[in-house]
Amino acid sequence: MRAACYERTGPAADVFRVEDVLVPAPGRGEVRVAVAFSGVNPSDVKTRAGARGGDLPFARIVPHSDGSGTVEAVGEGVDSGRVGERVWLWNAAWGRPYGTAADYVVLPAEQAVPLPDGASLETGACLGIQALTAYHAVHCHGGVEGQRMLIAGGAGAVGHSAIQIARVAGAAQIIASVSSEDKASIATAAGADTTIDYRREDVAARIGALTGGTGVDRVIEVALASNIGIDLQAVRRDGLIVAYGSDGPEVTIPFFPAILDNLQLQFFIVYNLDQTARRRAIDGVNRLLEQHVLQPRIGEILSLEDVAVAHQRVESGAASGNVLLRVGSWSRESVFT
Questions:
Q1: Closest alpha carbon to 319 in 186, 207, 124, 121
Q2: Mapping DSSP to helix (H, G, I), strand (E, B) and coil, where does residue 305 land?
Q3: 104 pairs with which residues across the strands?
Q4: How far apart are the C-alpha atoms of 155 and 185, rounded to whole Å?
Q5: What is the pLDDT of residue 334?
Q6: Which of 72, 180, 210, 323 has the most CB atoms at less than 10 Å from its CB?
Q7: How many CA atoms lie within 13 A of 199 on its CB side?
Q8: Full DSSP string of 14-52
Q9: Pairing, β 173-178 against β 148-151
Q10: Domain range annotation of the chain
Q11: Which fold has domain 2-126+296-326?
Q12: Which segments within the chain are labelled E, that is strand?
């Protein structure tokens, strides 16, 4: 089978190669999935680039935690009725050397989630990180029903899904920050009531005007290092800042404004959600797919051989929406025993 892989960190064009490797066999409690689409996320790009350290945890890495496809074989202890099932995948490459950037991937059966009828395999490859992050950010700490909220980066993959999820969850007012008119249109189409161009406007001042000086109940933040000052001004007393991402490794928090307003700051990474939160998010995302109200935005679909280009597109921020690799072609000649 084909697999995109690297054995050292560095620029995508320098370290990636696509080569033939043996098809893995599922072990006990595992399934083998014939991958249709592999999702490229910022975390995949950062790991490959060495942003989290130059030492790789494995000698060879086949990247990408998100993907979709069809269950092609099952290991001992897994219902054989799952063969042929369309699935979406999560954490495929988290703590593991082999992710979805290959014709086949083997992983624990619970990490292959049945994809609802009517949801495309392309959509399925956008769920494991992006949609689950958005769902948890919206629903943690009691959810957003009746709340005013700011979603930073409302045209990004997580922000776009968070707008849709918050709308269905009963948010009273959804404000999205964006960086251009085109991105404002994307956020508005997803369900944002108002957009603020953070490159041209004073975000905190606009939010004050939009909320009668009260501030929002909740901020969902993608770039905490740059935006913490804005967030502290934008959120109301006793409000909540939910941070799932940062554009810098260190965040300086003005202590007295935060403590005087009794603010909460929630950090989380979707890879490490506990079992209860994970189950709630998976079930919630599938329910929204069944209701046809969650539609992740797909920016580009490239071939597996263009994996380096896909990483460059995500790394540069040039793609508006999720970047996917089309896999869906494989050889069955070599199988691990």
A1: 186
A2: helix
A3: 34
A4: 8
A5: 34
A6: 323
A7: 7
A8: HH-EEEE-PBPPP-TTEEEEEEEEEEE-HHHHHHHHTTT
A9: parallel
A10: 2-126+296-326, 141-270
A11: Quinone Oxidoreductase; Chain A, domain 1 (3.90.180)
A12: 2-5, 17-20, 30-40, 66-74, 86-89, 104-108, 112-114, 148-151, 173-178, 194-197, 216-221, 235-243, 264-267, 298-303, 322-326
pLDDT at 337 over 70: no
CA-CA-CA-CA dihedral for 93, 99, 101, 105, to nearest 10: -160
pLDDT above 70 as % of the chain:
97
pLDDT tens-place string over residues 105-121: 999 999 999 999 999 99
**CA 236, CA 261: separation in Å to the nearest integer?**
8
Q: Which two tokens stand for residue 41?
A: 């996320």
Structure tokens, 299 = 């920016």
CATH superfamily of 141-270: NAD(P)-binding Rossmann-like Domain (3.40.50.720)
The total number of residues written for the chain in this structure: 337
